[in-house]
Amino acid sequence: MSMVSLLASLVMAGAGCLAFAAIAVTVRAQLPAARRLLADSRALAADREFLVQITATSAPAAARAATRPRRAPVRIVRPVPASAGPRLRAAA
To answer: Of 3, 6, 25, 92, which residue has the fewest beta carbons closer than 10 angstroms?
Structure first.
């Protein structure tokens, strides 16, 4: 075995160890974010269960046909008397 092959093997092993260390550091740094995501997921699941329970036990809604839609009040527009002032005309 020559010295070059031994050196190449050591370089490759070192690169592998550095890559493994980089992965470990990245995963460790992202652990709090992953925990927050899991907590949010659990909270959303609990909210869904609560909403299903609320809607399953609620009283039936009133029929839509029984209520009439409200109409806007009728607004009477009165004409302006002719003696209200001079009429302005657009220039031709």
So the answer is: 92
